[in-house]
Amino acid sequence: MPKSVKKSSAQTSISRFFSGFNKQANVSRTSSGIKPANAGHFGLAGKKKLPSNEEESGNKRAKLSHDTEDDDTGCIFVCSNKVTDAGTAGSRRSLSSSTLLRLKGFSCQGDSGPPEPGNWVGAHSRDPGDAAMGRGTSGREEEEDIKGENSPESIAKGQGSAQGLNLRQFAKPGSGGVGPAKKSPTETSAPNKRTKSIYTPLELQYLEIKEKHKDVLLCVECGYKYRFFGEDAEVAAKALNIFCHLDHNFMTASIPTHRLFVHVRRLVSQGYKVGVVKQTETTALKASGANKSAIFTRQLSALYTKSTLVGEDVNPLLTLGALEEAEDVVLDAPNNYLMCVSENWDSKTKELTVGLVAVQPSTGDVMLDCFKDGPPRSELEARVLRIQPVEILLPSDLSQTTEQLLRGIASASVQADDRIRVERLDSSRFEFTTALRTVTDFYSDASHQKAGEADRGAADSHSLSSIISLETPVICCLGPVIQYLADFNLQRVLTCPSSFRRLSCEADCMALSATTMRNLEILCNQTDCKVRGSLLWVLDHTQTPFGRRLMKKWVSQPLKSATEIRARQDAVAEVLSSEHSALPSVRALLCRLPDLERGICSIYHKKCSTQEFYLISSTLSRLGRSYRPCVLNETAAKTGDKTQLFADLTDFPVIRERKEEIQAVLSDILEHRREVRRVLRNPSLDYVTVSGQEFLIEVKNSLSSSVPSDWVKVSSTKAVGRYHSPFIVERHRRLLQLREQLVIDCGREWTNFLQQFGEHYHIMRKAVCHLATLDCFFSLADVAKQGNYCRPEVLEGESQIIIREGRHPVIDVLIGEQEQYVPNDTELQGDGRRTMIITGPNMGGKSSYIRQVALVCIMAQMGSFVPAREATLGIVDGIYTRMGASDNLSRGRSTFMEELLEASEIVSRATSRSLVILDELGRGTSTHDGIAIAYATLEFFIRDVKSLTLFVTHYPPLCELERVFPQHVGNYHMAFLLNETDAHADDEEARPEFITFLYLLTEGAAARSYGLNVARLAEVPESVIRTAALKSKELEAAVDARRKSKKSFLEAWNIEDREALQSWMQSNS
């Protein structure tokens, strides 16, 4: 027999109700384990007190239904479906059908019973406000399920939505679905009497939306919280660390409404596509409509991914609270580019053409490009690393080589937040005919819309023709991007083709390959891929987010026009030398600016909040007095109250009319107060408001007999009762309807207002771009002043690099004042000595020196001052580097293969105006092969390419090229001091020399590399070092012997006289 369960007050109520039934039925009811569902739901958060039977029956007067029911206004009972033994099962079968029907009347929406311990996924949320996320549905949602479950409207809607759906894919495994699948007793739900379905109307509504958006993690608004269902709930519980439990047929998890911003961004950062489903009806308007007994209608209101975080739900400004705090905070939001890639293989020419479109919906930045690429896909890799997209659109039939490249880049980061999200689209969308039709339709509609805009400058009459004239691969990318952004309602950013920028670096910018950007650590360091330790980290002292984004573009895209470079240098010099009083005030203004670029773009998309709009508009008003935000009520804008947002309603007649109707209803209710005073004989009586309930008539309990019988009792205490007269009930209902209609009207007018403001988007965006440029000039001036930089002289048409006392910009900052950086000179002339062969001991500073030269060239051509005493540089069209040693297992390439592929790429792309840096080429193979490849490659650059070249090597034979090309090649080494204290030791006790690095570039080749000194620094065991030193001496002796033998043979070979030969043999015997 099962354990006896102590009766609760709820069981007592049931027992009294069924007092006329037989004893066996009572035993069955007791053993069935009836208990409150809420107690199970709140088991982790505390017990929920149930009202007593006397309290439930004490008040028989009718009560009004409220928008949100309190959790303690009633009890929810569930029958535990656990069958412990055969005896229990038998007792359940003894209940009559009428008894079961009456028992069912006591159960509401908790038929599935309290969640089992095994059904909870995740732990307590880390966020404060998430402690109650595992609790059941809101009062409003419980009311929906109770009312809507048996209504004709919900029956028709539920049956219609269930047609054609594979319901089992959304339900918990084993929880049922369509068909006679067997379920465990704990997962059995009673079917709806009307629909004959085990799914509640809310679940059917969710299934209908989910069928249309299968790849979206849906967040559904249910009263005062948002809920996840099914597999979405389990994913959200794991990602957000919140509770997940079984409720009816689905696993469910929930988050509070005010935490939606936080949790949506957390899910998106982990790579999910998140959809927000909101209620489209209000309580008062629904009550007066035709479907008042149906469930609240809902629809997908917003979609978010890593590149499309634009909207009121995810607005960063909303997290700052007060506006004063928002203005003091500079948002550090990274670039969130969406990139689309397509390929076009020409079978005749055997060439691959790649099309690329990159869009940043949050700022309106659009870039496109079309280029030819080889098997290594170095051109595509360089562009991906330069743009650093957060999301990539790819066709399903992408080539394997490109697939491997993008997969490797996308998954390079260990942290999921830093990985690139990849969206796969059907390859048919990338077909030229389909893409062209999409593009044509989009820009035809855009041209008609622009014709009526006030901003005539933004309208491009030739937009369609200019778009159609783009390359085929670009159009094949642009079509899918338009379709994809249309799902997010962000396609407006593409309506102005005149603002599109070409990404190709061939025309206006220095060529920086992906390998070069990694090796030189331009945007991030190679240790942990963070900004600290990179060139961008040194130069970026900007004050605004949009200035920070522009600085990143400048660093990654140095200029090739001497005129533009000098213009930037003049601006930096002006900031440094000018004593104008306006500059400090402008700098102070920049420090307090929010992200205007993203703000005006959010307004352009009509997705901004009132708080964000006020912040942006008030900021623009400080920048220029031509625009004043006096049309807005400041207090309402800060709090987000759209019903009081517009200070002047002259241009908003709909809102003015609705407010007049509300005022008329309020006047009627206030006038009715006279009648109430007369009836109750209380001249001083006034309405009271308690717990949000307005216009309550408070009467002492001792005078309750004077209350008319048709008045409705709303609430009561021990001393007074609170009522609504029939007139107030009717007028209050009308007032609620008008207020909710006012909210809808104000929302519609707000959207129209944003539309009018957005018509000036392109003009305001240009103004913000100018502010970003000014911010970058201030930043470069600060860097030049703090680092004691000089202004480099840039020469047009010259091929030379002359640097006096140059320093590595990053190392110079990292060491700070603790150590003294050793400066070095550089002199390369295109028509003179254009190649430097650099040798010297390991860790002597060779790699740092060649990086220093390259970074100085980049800084000079981006318009910055440089860390040197003096610098004169010609325009460099590209910097190509081959440094480091690493394999590429994902592409099946060894270390040596990677070296040769990078060297081959440099050979094919470098010109006489390029800077080529080769660091220890050939070390990935045998010594003889490595020397041969390094020698031949360097000779090719000296004789054929004639580029400015820095070649680091440990191969002594390469130094002989100075003798072959004395006018164009020079040998150099990093100076050091040699401690030869062990020089007189025996061979058996040989020890490596001690080296003191001087880090000073000196003419001449180094005789040795002194690698054993590095072994000592690496704390290799002393016995190993001694053995290595002994072996090194043996190998050097053998090499010297071979060298002497070869020299002797050549000398003997050149002797023709017999006597002379005999004399030579005697002298060398």
TrEMBL record:
Component of the post-replicative DNA mismatch repair system (MMR). It comes from Anguilla anguilla. Its main location: nucleus. Belongs to the DNA mismatch repair MutS family. MSH3 subfamily. It is found in: Nucleus. GO terms for biological process: mismatch repair; mitotic recombination; somatic recombination of immunoglobulin gene segments. InterPro entries: DNA_mismatch_repair_MutS-lik_N (IPR007695), DNA_mismatch_repair_MutS/MSH (IPR017261), DNA_mismatch_repair_MutS_C (IPR000432), DNA_mismatch_repair_MutS_clamp (IPR007861), DNA_mismatch_repair_MutS_core (IPR007696), DNA_mismatch_repair_MutS_N (IPR016151), DNA_mismatch_repair_MutS_sf (IPR036187), DNA_mmatch_repair_MutS_con_dom (IPR007860). It comes from the Eukaryota. Coiled coil: none annotated. This is DNA mismatch repair protein MSH3.
